[in-house]
Amino acid sequence: MRSWPTKTLALGGDYNPEQWPRPVWDEDIALMQRANIAFVSLGIFSWSWLEPAKGEYDFEWLDTIMDKLHAGGIAVDLATATATPPPWLSAAHPEILPVDVDGHTLWPGSRQAWCPTSPVFRDYALALARQLATRYHDHPALAMWHVSNEYACHNLPCYCDECARHFRTWLRRRYEGLDALNDAWGTAFWSQRYTDWEQILPPRRSTTFNNPTHVLDYKRFSSDALLEHMRGERAVLDELSPGVPVTTNFMTLQHFRHLDYTQWTPTVDVVSTDHYIVDVLQHPRAELAFSGDLTRGLAGGAPWMLMEHSTSAVNWQPTNHAKAPGQTIRDALAHVARGADTIGWFQWRQSRAGSEKFHSAVVPHAGADSARFREVEELGRIAGRLGELVGSRVESRVAILHDYQAIWAAEGPCMPSSELDALEAAHAIHRQLHDRGVTADVVHPSADLTTYAVVVVPQLYLVTDEHAAAVAAAAEAGAQVVVTYFSGISDEQDHVRLGGYPGAFRDLLGVRVEEFFPLGPDETVLLTDGTGTWWSEDVTALPGTEVVSTYAAPPLAGRPAVTRRDVGRGGAAWYLSTLPDDDRLGALLDGVLSAAGVEPTVAALPRGVEATRRSDSTGSWLFLLNHTSAEQTVRATGHDLVSDTAVDGSVRLAPGGAAVVRER
Ligand code: GLA
Ligand code: ZN
């Protein structure tokens, strides 16, 4: 996996010059130089400008701006411009439009109105990519290809007839025979047995709940269908522009779950993602950290690229809060702290018209004479000093397992609780670690778990035998393994593992559960040492398993709530059958960390200060981000690259401030 091909910490952003008259372009480039902008993503939504009519191309404006950017020393992440078809295309070919679960067409008029499997759309998109690759493959400004944009942001799943046909082909490859499909989907239930492939439809709105494995397979298919599309674009670039790195911007935000990015990473040279702070979340900063740790997991631990975030407010939340002074810098550094070597914003210049006219940008409506632009300029100076850490890796000895397919299955119809978020435990545990200054890698169960001292398995509802065995092997080899409720329940067909829950982890944990007692969002259950939320269950601890805490109220009073079992050479398997309150969860994790010998990144970290460390063979860098409104002091020695001052024993962080201390 490569990172952005520069040796500096590169700043940049989406650049949409077609929204501005040409004199503004020259001003843009001068301002980019002032702010130390290294790259722009260009042409993402430019299809209707580049191909104003079928087969008629206008590259004059793109030639001009590419040349100007090159002359200005700014590298280009050039889009294949296929993210949104022009109106002439959807007017001529309405069959490319996506269809929702109720059979309603999603009309053009916003963006991404195209069906993932439409062969017509694909032909037109590949033709445009071909033109661009032919024209710009050797342009000196070209540094990377940006394929499409945020795949699946708006057009997945599509339930049209074309998708139905592709789904059947996908199913034939997966199951070979209809008998295998009928077994996998459990169609003995509700008279659903298929006798001909043509009878199979997408899981469109039905009278009541659709078949869960059918729904799960449709999610798998939909992710694969878009990946297939990406591969088509990539093949064009490989043929006509070989050697230039290719990316597409993922969305590793908590709420975006349509694509199994684990399957996608082999198709990109650079893992890039977009992240926006979602104010309505209870813990938005922890979510940002989780997203960074997940993106790093997708990149296999290598540095990654933050393609988009915002300098301040977005335009798509109920109330779009502006960022506090200083937060533009701190938020950017928060991504670098988790392994980003490139920091991009959406967008360079704030639009005057269109849906995103009130979305913040590097150059706001007020112009460059603004606090926000000055903050970016300041970050530009800091980025210059941070070049030395580019390529270094984030240190972590804790893994949190994350699998989009397990999430999809857990979000299927008719579960014990439809109010429980599939990522509830993952985020709660990650946040406790984050608050302690302990960094976790958020990784797929197929990752190499042997390097971790702690492996957390949060609500891994669906798990393959192979992945369950890898978790058990980690405990055998000496790791502290923490499994939560509703893990190991089903296999990859979403068939329940019999003989007592949590089927796949029962032996490892030394517990057996006969029945779930899920809790609603406003319910709690008393424990001997705290309260439990979201879930409880009737646990029996098998011989050799220690009961750490117990339910203290009916109907489960006296039954084990948290257990622990010694495994292998110094390892242990912990089971949390409920989600304990923050204090209790924190205390449990303290016990796990101390058993594993995992220390926080720095000792005596003040509450509200985030700490991570990046290192390589040449040095190590301590990131400290003060999310509080008070000054904070942290023990450190070295040189702070943010303030460019020496640090001798302790570093003072201004309210909302940040430091990056080179330690050796
Ligand atoms: C996404 C898109 C951008 C822009 C931003 C706004 O990330 O990729 O084009 O719409 O959202 O937050
Ligand atoms: Zn479709």
TrEMBL record:
It catalyses: Hydrolysis of terminal non-reducing beta-D-galactose residues in beta-D-galactosides. InterPro entries: Beta_galactosidase_C (IPR013739), Beta_galactosidase_Trimer (IPR013738), Class_I_gatase-like (IPR029062), GH (IPR017853), Glyco_hydro_42 (IPR003476), Glyco_hydro_42_N (IPR013529), Glyco_hydro_b (IPR013780). The keyword Metal-binding applies. GO terms for molecular function: beta-galactosidase activity; metal ion binding. GO terms for cellular component: beta-galactosidase complex. Residues 14-381 form the Glycoside hydrolase family 42 N-terminal domain. Signal peptide: none annotated. It is an enzyme of class 3 (hydrolase). Coiled coil: none annotated. GO terms for biological process: galactose metabolic process. Residues 608-663 form the Beta-galactosidase C-terminal domain. Its EC number is 3.2.1.23. The keyword Chloroplast does not apply. Residues 397-598 form the Beta-galactosidase trimerisation domain. The active site is at residues 150, 308. Substrate binds at residues 111, 149, 316. Keywords: Glycosidase, Hydrolase, Metal-binding, Zinc. Zn(2+) binds at residues 115, 158, 160, 163. Belongs to the glycosyl hydrolase 42 family. This is Beta-galactosidase.
